[in-house]
Amino acid sequence: MPEWQDSSWVARERFPSFADALHLLHRPNDPADILPEGLAWSRLAYDEFLAGQLALALVRAHLRRPAGRATPGTGQLRKKLIDALPYSLTPSQQRAVAEIIADLAKPERMLRLLQGDVGSGKTVVALLAAAAVIEGGRQAALMAPTEILARQHFNTIAPLAAAADINVAILTGRERGRERNDILARLALGEIHTLIGTHAVFQEQVEFRDLALAVVDEQHRFGVHQRLALAKKGEAVDVLVMTATPIPRTLVLTYFGDMDVSELREKPAGRRPIDTRLVPLSRLDEVVGAVSRALVEGRRIYWICPLVETTEHTDLAAAEERFAALKERFGPMVDLVHGRMKGDEKDRAMERFAVGETRLLVATTVIEVGVDVPEATVMIIEHAERFGLAQLHQLRGRIGRGAEHSSCLLLYKAPLGEAAKARLNILRETEDGFRIAEEDLRLRGEGDVLGTRQSGMPGFRVARIETHGKLIGAARDDAALLLSRDPTLVSARGQAVRHLLYLFERDEAIRLIRAG
Q1: CA–CA separation, 226 vs 233, rounded Å?
Q2: Partners of 275 in the beta sheet?
Q3: Percentage of the chain lying above the pLDDT 90 cut
């Protein structure tokens, strides 16, 4: 096959040809020939990265090609919002807002990923972005994966929006009949400036007068199709995707290479550090005693039970058993939430905990993303050694949101292996989600970090992120350069690269070129 890599790059890296690399790995002359860091394997890993980056870049060019509509805001509403905030924006919030405003003013469509640690203030950035398009006489929508999250966003946004005369409404499965019809009518007339909701937002009957910006929260809970369905609700809609899961830079390039990225690095002012401790399960009785004292003090507590790989039933059984034991001891102040409950049952249980009717919530990992109960100050995670680092960090982020001192107890089954001990110790040392995500990647590999096992995201076939990740940046730059010179891949190298895309089953990208 023709060489699809740049000849000077191949020479500089001393890479063998594709055929030689395959031959050497299948018939090595020496055991060292088949090491992942060896030249043959690295060559094939780079091929896979280049195929991935080219496919992303082609998809992106295709998404970008429908000209966007520039919406340069006046800044008036944003100024009112910033004046209404009880705190000043962090430097990275200011930077993210500036990047988004610049994108909105361009004639191309925006596709930006806003990643920020738990509680870093993404909702406020989204609101300021919405304000910019509202200043231009257009509308915004914010879509969250669950009703709890949608209502939380609404509760954060509504009082601030009122200060700037921005009309906000919420639309979930709960709004029905006359109330729903009223919202839809006002939305179509343009009287509602920002609509917040669940996937109810992109149902057929929902019509905007002029939707300019779609904000999608916790992107990994939605498929690309749902993101596109929301973008189709208006003409050339700009898209902002938010996630509270810090993703290591190499994986951002791999999976979100079609997006520009903004990061929120700082914690908002006033957040207190969380006291994190490791406790062996053999001391469970002492932990229950500590819970008893915390309840007497009026505190609210999460007790998280692990997901057991084998079946959902064992996961549920663990949570139900723990719930039964704690309820026997503490009575009606204990409640249970798990993934097999219906949406409205889950919402009601969360609501009871949020208002303080119940004060000890036994849960599986369904509470991982976004639940905001500032009064909750204690978290106990059972079998912490079974969780990924990023997931433990997400769970821990549910506490430490108010002014009170917060504690997180990681219960583990002794004896701990070296790797498990190293992982849990990182959590004790730091609350920086980006550092934790990088460590998680180093210790567990990309499949587990992104949850690709569950989410169906494509893992790599040849490349190993932990060994070859440093090559992704070069592959991304190479793909961008190649397409800037030859956007339809008709040059000699372009034709060769088409072979590469077919080999790694990225030929959908070629169909996009054909479709124009």
Answers
A1: 11
A2: 407
A3: 49
Instruction: Specify the 3-state DSSP secondary structure of 218.
Output: coil
Q: Which residues, other chains included, contact 242 with Cβ-Cβ below 8 Å and sequence gap of 6+?
A: 113, 114, 115, 116, 122, 126, 215, 216, 217, 218, 219
User: Which parts of the chain sit beneath pLDDT 70?
Assistant: 62-68, 219-228, 249-250, 253-258, 268-270, 307-316, 367-371, 444-459, 512-516
Residue whose structure tokens are 């849990």: 424
Write down the domain spans for the chain: 76-245, 274-430
Roughly how many angstroms between the first and final C-alpha of the chain, as a whole number? 26
pLDDT tens across 351-378, in order?
899 899 999 999 987 765 556 788 899 9
Rounded to 5°, angle at Cα 207 from 202 and 213: 70
Nearest partner of 47 among 22, 24, 28, 29, judged by Cα: 22
CATH 3.40.50.300 fits 76-245, yes or no: yes
Give the integer Cα–Cα distance in Å for 271 and 432: 13
Q: What is the pLDDT of residues 166-204, one digit of tens each?
A: 999 999 988 889 999 999 999 999 999 999 998 888 788
Tokens of 260: 């520009």
Residue 430 Cα to chain centre, angstroms: 20
Q: Any idea which architecture 274-430 has in CATH?
A: 3-Layer(aba) Sandwich (3.40)
Domains 76-245 and 274-430 share a fold: yes
Answer whether 46's CB lies under 8 Å from 468's CB. Answer: yes
Backbone phi, psi, residue 350, to 5°: -65, -40
> CA 92, 98, 103: angle at the middle one, nearest 5?
125
* DSSP annotation of 362: E
Token output for 78: 């944003």
CA-CA distance, 413 to 176, in Å (whole number)?
Answer: 48
Q: Which amino acid belongs to residue 100?
A: I
Type of residue numbered 363: A
67 near 74, Cβ under 8 Å?
Answer: no
Distance between CA atoms of 76 and 65, rounded to whole angstroms?
Answer: 31
Cβ atoms 196, 169 nearer than 8 A: yes
Confidence (pLDDT) at 453: 43
How far does Cα 218 stand from its chain's mean position? Answer: 5
